[in-house]
Amino acid sequence: MLERDLETLSAKLGERAIREHPLGRLTTYRVGGDAAIYFVAEGEDDLHRVRIALSGSSVPFLVLGNGSNMLVSDRGFPGLVVKLGSGFDYVTIPNGARPTEVERVVVAAGAATDFPILARKSVEAGLSGLEWAVGIPGTVGGAVRMNAGGHGSDVASCLKRCRWMDIASGTYGDGGPSELGFGYRTSGIAPTAIVTRAEFWAQEGDRDESRSVLSDVVRWRRDNQPGGSNAGSVFTNPPGISAGELVEAAGLKGYRHNSASVSLKHANFIQADVGGSAADVYELMDYVARRVMDESGVALSREVRLVGFDVEVGGAHS
Ligand SMILES: Cc1cc2nc3c(=O)[nH]c(=O)nc-3n(C[C@H](O)[C@H](O)[C@H](O)COP(=O)(O)OP(=O)(O)OC[C@H]3O[C@@H](n4cnc5c(N)ncnc54)[C@H](O)[C@@H]3O)c2cc1C
Question: Looking at ligand 1, which atom is closest to the CA of residue 303?
């Protein structure tokens, strides 16, 4: 049944819909299987095409950003993965007369824009307030969905508004933080909603000072976080304590499970070996959470999104 639906969907989307396209490789873990169908939406017209093609179909749906907060199962994702393309990759900064220091400036970006690019472009335009984003290797859309944050800030505190399209209903939404249900590394954005554009607040700044903040953020990341294949922090920090400290206190820093290991540099990062498996990463996440519960009685919550596992899949299309 699903296979027939996949064939029908693929035919409706046309030749740019690719069957059995590598998906795990498009994530920062670089492990995991294929997407049953992969489609790059170059602009809003393509999103409409996707919506019409999906209408009445049982095929599950997932929007992919930079895959920097995802673990894709070795089986892959049995549905349609949509990646936003070039039409959603832009940063717009007002030039000419700008308000005084105390007033705020709006920086707009397409959802496919790399978050660090947004930070760097706003700094080069003499604006301040988005420097923290240089350390987060996601897209604008993924950052809004996850309420990404760090270095004392997060999306919820900088976002003016964003625009999205709900692929299930075909309706557009437009709203600010009060409508988006932001929490710590979460939002209330529906799994079937695709963020297409976001506007952020910034203010006039000193370019040299902001450049130096960018360098500090990058240096801090290099000194405190590992390279290699990972998706950043695996668990959110429980109130008042860091998840990394809890993992370390459970004696798990450097712990290895087949092709996955807890980073020696940052205990809340799990690394995948080149050619490793998503199952090893998943099992290690599970083991770490159980050991922390046994050692400290704290239940860790996963920040990394699981894709194609029985426990959690992408947005189910209705
Ligand atoms: C080395 C490293 C360091 C990191 N440090 C941080 C950090 O300091 N702070 C932090 O918050 N995160 C951090 N992360 C995690 C990650 O970068 C963020 O969560 C980022 O916002 C995810 O963006 P993405 O585009 O990669 O999303 P993806 O991983 O592709 O997707 C994540 C979720 O967002 C959804 N999504 C993606 N694009 C859209 C869209 N356009 N519309 C709607 N939903 C969408 C996906 O369906 C999925 O549910 C780090 C990751 C790495 C690898």
Answer: 19
